[in-house]
Q: What sequence folds into this?
């Protein structure tokens, strides 16, 4: 694998994660618990669609193939996606969706902070651009989780359950492959150290919510190795329907 | 059915650019100031219209009524001496 | 606010109200207004707000299947706008003393209506084009006129909404135009959507003036600024030419162009269908309401938690 190929594949990891996350959050459209939150979730979804597009477009020149962002989004199958599994995990209830957004945004905040100091100009640019949006997602999701945790007995138990369930997707965020090795000079982070920082922040926030971190050892991994959960196929099936059904059409 | 809630009503004021006055833009429903600010951001600044946001619980806003109009405001009609055009300046005086 | 609304009608208050209308001034929430005026404006704003919110559903049906990243972003932003517009309108309606909780309850009890157009299904991607171009197009004609409505908060909400919605109709027309330049299947899909949405869009303006008993009073109060037929004709005249530009056929065998008035005359509108949908027998009436109630109920625990939280006054570090 060349450095450019590594960059291509590394960028697809975040492009795919953003896209699948955006698609999942769009599912909330017209289903929010209060109209104001409907708009908030749509905003986060739109941020992720925008990030997906930016990451695809940056990746494409490194891949050296004749393809567009839409080709990458709509014409690849389950075993060709590089997204982290947390993105494809179903939304569940409002607490679970907020938990997904929160745990992922703490992680992405660390990654994009590191990338925004990268000497590699494209990575640097993407890090700077995405960071602001991700910081807002963290602020929004943490505010809601905190309120739900200190709301009613029902809401607190739903948040606790969400933490328990989504936790099993978090080791996956810290798995690495040959791309990370090849790009170690320009990524400006070391994954084990980053995991400690992530864990400390999440633990502190959960403490404020009145929870301890789950003791479960059950973890599911494989996103960047293109080994997904059954959920991804359904997400793609719906998302890619028109492009697949009318392969010669332009929209 | 339990009594439902749409949370408290907040009025939203937005400053579009640094140095400009805050203008009332509308309202949102929220449980507290942080979520009210976030909702105001998501609802009233989607097209880059904001620089700073204020939110105030609607219940704390007092207003004059139509009945107050005459005694509050008509009484300033005959006080033209508060405006610079009231004064006669000598011919040739500049920059005043 | 209550005390003002329940003040017995005094001749001076009424004269003041009428003088304001006469001078094209706005009526503001705390001004005295006749009870019937208050009720009419409130009902209209509430219905308008519900329409925006229910209108999210047919388009939401395609948001996960939009065929490109660009289309996805546009559609999502558009549906988000509809939600925002619902919100502006609920706020405007709340200035007349009814809170949003009650308005939603009235919707669920089917005591408050929403625009019948949203009781038609969005079957193909071309329907997203047709909804944006025709349904939003018709709504905009109405809303532009309502920017001059006499109730201040309603007029201000309309100004904001018209500004934001100016891209909605374009995005719909762009979808139709792209499909009409596409494969034969896409062209057929676009024409099919045109055939299904054309007449319901014309019905959006409501019954003919002669059959619209409330119009006269609403016009007198300047709540409504132009009659149903006049607004409908404006829409017809600008839309038909747009259809021809991209090669769509108007599904009306009686359509004629009048050279003198430079205006189109259309065949008879099927008012039986209109009233049937209004009365609840459209293809999606039940589905739309079931959806709204279901997600409103599913969100109840979140709202309750937020309310409980607000009482506790805890601050996050």
A:
């Amino acid at each position: 694998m060349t450095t450019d190929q590594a960059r291509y594949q590394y960028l697809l990891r975040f492009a795919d994660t953003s896209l699948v996350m955006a698609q999942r959050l769009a599912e909330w459209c017209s289903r929010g618990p209060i109209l104001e939150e409907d708009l908030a979730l749509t905003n986060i979804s739109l941020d992720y669609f925008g990030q997906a597009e930016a990451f695809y477009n940056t990746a494409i020149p490194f891949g050296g193939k004749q393809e567009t962002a839409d080709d990458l989004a709509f014409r690849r199958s389950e075993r060709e996606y590089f997204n982290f599994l947390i993105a494809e995990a179903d939304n569940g209830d409002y607490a679970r969706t907020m938990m997904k957004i929160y745990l992922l945004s703490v992680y992405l905040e660390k990654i994009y902070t590191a990338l925004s100091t990268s000497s590699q100009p494209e990575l640097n640019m993407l890090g700077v651009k995405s960071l602001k949006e991700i910081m807002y997602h963290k602020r929004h999701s943490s505010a809601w989780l905190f309120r739900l945790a200190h709301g009613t007995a029902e809401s607190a138990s739903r948040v606790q359950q969400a933490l328990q369930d989504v936790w099993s997707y978090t080791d996956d965020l810290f798995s690495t492959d040959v791309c990370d090795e090849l790009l170690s000079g320009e990524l400006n982070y070391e994954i084990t150290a980053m995991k400690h920082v992530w864990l400390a922040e999440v633990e502190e926030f959960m403490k404020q919510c009145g929870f301890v971190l789950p003791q479960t050892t059950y973890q599911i991994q494989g996103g960047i190795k293109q080994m997904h959960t059954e959920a991804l196929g359904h997400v793609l099936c719906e998302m890619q329907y028109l492009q697949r059904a009318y392969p010669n059409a332009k929209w | 059915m339990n009594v439902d809630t749409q949370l408290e009503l907040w009025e939203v004021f937005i400053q579009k650019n640094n140095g400009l006055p805050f203008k009332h833009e509308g309202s949102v429903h929220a449980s507290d100031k942080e979520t009210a600010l976030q909702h105001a951001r998501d609802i009233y600044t989607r097209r880059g219209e904001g620089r700073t946001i204020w939110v105030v619980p609607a219940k704390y806003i007092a207003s004059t009524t139509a009945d107050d109009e005459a005694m509050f405001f008509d009484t300033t009609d005959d006080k033209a001496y508060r405006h610079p055009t009231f004064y006669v300046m000598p011919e040739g005086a500049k920059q005043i | 606010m209550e005390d003002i609304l329940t003040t017995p009608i005094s001749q001076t208050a009424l004269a003041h109200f009428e003088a304001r209308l006469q001078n094209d001034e706005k009526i503001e929430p705390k001004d005295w207004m006749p009870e019937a005026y208050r009720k009419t404006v409130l009902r209209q704003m509430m219905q308008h707000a519900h329409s925006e919110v229910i209108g999210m559903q047919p388009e939401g049906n395609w948001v996960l299947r939009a065929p490109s990243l660009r289309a996805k972003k546009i559609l999502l932003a558009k549906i988000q706008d509809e939600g925002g517009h619902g919100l502006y309108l609920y706020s405007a309606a709340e200035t007349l003393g009814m809170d949003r909780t009650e308005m939603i309850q009235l919707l669920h009890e089917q005591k408050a209506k929403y625009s019948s157009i949203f009781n038609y299904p969005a079957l193909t991607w071309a329907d997203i084009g047709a909804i944006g171009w025709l349904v939003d197009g018709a709504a905009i004609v109405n809303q532009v006129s309502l920017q001059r409505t006499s109730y201040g908060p309603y007029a201000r909400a309309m100004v904001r909404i018209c500004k934001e919605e100016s891209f909605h109709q374009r995005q719909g027309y762009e979808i139709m135009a792209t499909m009409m330049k596409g494969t034969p299947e896409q062209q057929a899909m676009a024409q099919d959507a045109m055939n299904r949405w054309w007449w319901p869009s014309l019905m959006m303006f409501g019954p003919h003036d002669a059959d619209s008993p409330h119009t006269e009073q609403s016009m007198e109060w300047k709540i409504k600024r132009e009659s149903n037929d006049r607004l409908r004709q404006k829409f017809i005249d600008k839309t038909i030419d747009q259809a021809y530009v991209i090669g769509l056929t108007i599904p009306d065998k009686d359509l004629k162009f009048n050279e003198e008035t430079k205006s189109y005359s259309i065949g008879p509108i099927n008012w039986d269908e209109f009233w049937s949908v209004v009365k609840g027998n459209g293809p999606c009436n039940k589905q739309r309401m079931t959806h709204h109630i279901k997600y409103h109920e599913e969100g109840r625990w979140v709202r309750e938690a937020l309310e409980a939280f607000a009482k506790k006054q805890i601050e996050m570090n």
